[in-house]
Design goal:
Blueprint (H helix, E strand, L loop, with lengths): L2 H7 L30 E4 L1 H4 L10 H6 L1 H7 L3 E4 L3 E2 L11 E5 L6 H13 L3 E6 L9 H6 L13 E2 L19 E4 L4 E4 L14 H17 L3 E4 L22 H4 L4 H15 L5 E6 L4 H8 L8 E4 L13 H11 L11 E3 L8 H5 L7 H12 L5 E5 L20 H11 L6 H11 L38 H6 L4 H14 L1 H5 L1 E4 L7 E8 L2 E8 L5 E4 L6 E5 L11 E4 L4 E5 L1
Parallel strand pairs: 1-2, 1-13, 2-5, 5-9, 9-10, 10-11, 12-13
Antiparallel strand pairs: 3-4, 6-8, 7-8, 14-15, 15-16, 16-20, 17-19, 18-20
Helix pairs in contact: 13-17
The structure holds alpha-D-glucopyranose and calcium ion (CA).
Length: about 575
Amino acid sequence: MKTSRRSFLTLSGAAILLPDQTHAKTPASEPAPWWETAVAYEIYPRSFQDGNGDGIGDFIGMANRVDYLADLGIDAVWVAACFDSPNADNGYDVRDYRKIMPDFGTMDDFDRFLSRATQRGIRVILDMVFNHTSDEHPWFVRSRASRDNPWRDFYHWHDGKNGGPPTNWNAVFGGPAWTLDPATGQYYLHTFAVKQPDVNWENPDLRKELYDILRFWAAKGVSGFRFDAITSIAKPAILSDLPARLANGYHNFADHGERMHFLLRDMNREVFAGTSLYSVGEAYGVDRRQITAMTAASRHELTSAFRFDLVLGNKHKTMPAAARLRAFNASNAFDDTPNVWPLVWLEDHDFPRAVSRYGSRRPEYRQRSAKLLLTMLLSLRGTPYIYQGQEIGMENYPFRSIDDYNDISARNGWHEQVESGKITARAYLADLAQNSRDNARTPMQWDTSPHAGFTTASATPWLAVNPNYKTINAASEKQDKKSVLSYCARMIRIRKTHPRVIHGRYKDVSPESETLYAYERTDRTGTDLIVLNFSDRPAQFFLPRTPASLVISNISDTALPRDTTLHLRPWESLILTL
Ligand code: GLC
Ligand code: CA
């Protein structure tokens, strides 16, 4: 089955290399790549804007909101999974990579969205789910039909062991990572759900198909791709059981060694070389060293990557927000490995809302803490990604029962953990309410009309709208100069007019505090100081000198300090030029 693998081993003998230290700077004559100054925005199409009144977001709706994004200052949009899919995992189980999901419209609708976005200077990045397909994809349908068909090797088929699956690996969405297909008596591997079989990247014909799909979309004029679960594409050469504590979760059984890098370089050479296409990897389960190796320009693998290690992992859940984010930034945004351009983010469609996670629990500080988080996000080195709704300070949804959830991960977990008696419904629901991916997937809150203007009054939205939409919505916030939305637009403008908040040298000037996070960004022309009070209480901070000007504050009546003592109110954030 794995014969194709052997022949590649000789080609890829090199051990993991650290990025080339000799090309630390782009020559002054070359303009910086667009992603260094761009602000990106993720759209989860199902929840962004319904354009035809069926309760599901779509490309007609997205095209109608291009002006909103352009006014906000957005330069690039990452469109989450949008291809034809039976929706076992909301589009992350693709049936046809060259067809728009009918729920989201037609290819014409997509083309209209792309041209509207392009006209307004917004680049489009598509989400390529290439670790797995749907079990309804024609490749898999053919692959499972017999043991000896040409598509068999497009997937990972293996014999069982001792009457059970080949290994003890478990899938991310629960249950074993192997499913027996009775027709041929073999098991197939699925890192995620049963309906998401992993493809076999070792097969050159499979890779060719994937690369052709990228060329197809590139020819339409998209600017780049986000690669879903990309750190799972290489599998270990020898299948073996993992210690029970490690058998849960995909990052444990993927091969993050030379095979992963080899495959990324192969894709880069075949599709990206000689083009200006951008690529960003969802780099789950790998450490900083691997990420720098995947993303250093001199390695020719990916442009950038979303990092999840450190503060976003469970290990760090108990750390206070300021301490977690400081540690994450030090390692991610301010990693100064030559040739690595980071990506910075606080929310995407797989995580709860940032303001509910890192902000104040007190309603009176919601707006302030949402602005404080945006101040930080937009004053880091790296391409910032804003997730839809983050710019208006959307919060987690007040979930009550399991029926309120749509996510396969929530529903499978209920079945596996609660119905089997492993944990109580109460404990499970309490955890889910805080951490569920559906927190980020409730419809975008546009205005005060029924269903927050996401869909027409008579339609039923696919997932309930957060009842707080009368207060938190784009239309009201647009009118209000003190809103989170207005603040976000200002912060984006500041980022674009103060190159030092993007490229300046970083110095953490509050390294000990658990609630106050302050850092300087310095270049030849001066220093900006960013001060963030992650607390329901006031704080003091001593400045190195009397500041020259106040760039922005999240409280409208904050004045330029006249001496070197800064008195901060709860959740106050400001940027000062020293
Ligand atoms: C990524 C996606 C997530 C999806 C999973 C499987 O983590 O962001 O939404 O469920 O991959 O494709
Ligand atoms: Ca629709």
